[in-house]
Amino acid sequence: MKTKVTTPIEGGGKGSTAWEKGYKVGSEGPGKVVDKVKGIFSKKDGASTESAATESAAAAEATPSQKLSDPKNGTVEYNEKTGQFEKVSKSATEKTAVEEKSVVAEEKSVQESSTTKVSKASAFKAAVSSKLGTALSAGKSSLKSSFSVKNIALSAGLTVGFKIFDQIKSGEKVSIGKAVGYLATGEFAGSFVGSSLGSAAGSVVGSLVGSTIPVVGPILGALMPAVFGQIGGQLGSQLGNDLSSGQKFSFKKAWASIDKVAVLGQAIGSTVGAAIGSMICPGLGTMIGGLVGGMVGNLIVNKIRNRTNKNTVTSVNAINNQVIFGEQVAPPPAAVAVSTTTSVSGTGDAQNLYNQMIASYKNYSQLLSEGKGDSTECQEALSQYKQLYTQYAATVGTASNN
């Protein structure tokens, strides 16, 4: 046993190759072993560096098509202008995508804004159409009511009543026949038709004003039918007078003859009176309140302006609660061959009086045409004309009786 144990292992005893290697490790010491280990890692790092250098060289030697197809460098896009495929960098691609998103967002915003504008325009158009339709309907209803048989008969009856009242007020002998005969004159027809058309126009304007202007709109709208009715009635009255006497109608002259302040006063009185009458007795109370209110308004205006109320009723429009007043300035009558007759005033013959009357009427008409209807000069010319007209009528009547 001792022999076998102490006998060196085959190939492993002193002097063997294995022995020499082991001894060599020991003789070299631990430091050299560590250096050898470091050498192993250094070789690996060198290999990595060499590999990276090899890849860089390979990349440098890459062909143009390989470079284009490399996703690291960006994307390849076809340029329609040049007809070639071109490399687009990644940053440029991202910038293009952002720009495209911005354009899409802007287009969407413009589209939404356009849609909003179209919606607002459609809503405005619908509102205007609705208001206009309502206004036209009001005007149509006013016209239909004004020219109804009931209103014409009632208005004619009230006009006759006012004419009889005028006769009593002026000290004339009451003549029902004369009062009824007035209904056949151009003055009454023109006044009634003008008032009816004016009230219809006022209803249209009043409806639009009342529904458009806030706060004061409804108040102004309520006055419009009465204001337009008064103006239309007075213009119609002048037109009827001119046509019946064979004279040419002058709108400028007719407009100048209208007392605008009196028209406003009558309109306010008529509107307020109708409102009060409606609260007391709708229907009949409305009509009576409007008629009385218009007369009171006319009276107050003349009182404030310190004028004698010489206006006469030219027509009544019952359904519109209006009494139409006018100066009742009759045009000069045709000359009568009584030149040798002395006038009742003893100032000369009838022909001379007729010439003075014509001159006075022309002066009055001229002042009206110049827009001086409310001036003192025009009022004096009118007063003079009425005086000469009365004198001439009396002179001609006296001559005819003789």
Describe the structure.
The protein is built from 13 helices and four strands. By secondary structure, it is mostly helical. A two-stranded antiparallel ribbon has the order 1-2. The chain has a two-stranded antiparallel ribbon with strand order 3-4. Strand 3 and strand 4 (322-326) form a beta hairpin.
Helix/strand layout:
Blueprint: H1 2-6, H2 17-60, H3 64-69, E1 75-79, E2 84-88, H4 90-146, H5 149-170, H6 176-181, H7 186-212, H8 217-244, H9 251-257, H10 260-280, H11 284-304, E3 312-317, E4 322-326, H12 350-369, H13 376-401
Antiparallel strand pairs: 1-2, 3-4
Helix pairs in contact: 4-7, 7-8, 8-10, 9-12, 10-11, 12-13
Concise description?
Helix content is 72%, strand content 5%. It has helices spanning 2-6, 17-60, 64-69, 90-146, 149-170, 176-181, 186-212, 217-244, 251-257, 260-280, 284-304, 350-369, 376-401, and strands spanning 75-79, 84-88, 312-317, 322-326.
Radius of gyration: 56 Å
Order of helices and strands: HHHEEHHHHHHHHEEHH
User: What share of the residues lie within helices?
Assistant: over 70%
The neighbouring-strand order within the major sheet is 1-2
Low-confidence stretches: 1-7, 339-347
Helix and strand content put the structural class at mainly alpha
Distance between the termini: 201 Å
Strand content: 5-15%
Q: Which key phrases capture this entry?
A:
two-stranded antiparallel sheet; single chain; 4 strands; 72% helix; mainly alpha; two-stranded antiparallel ribbon; disordered N terminus; elongated; 13 helices; 402 residues
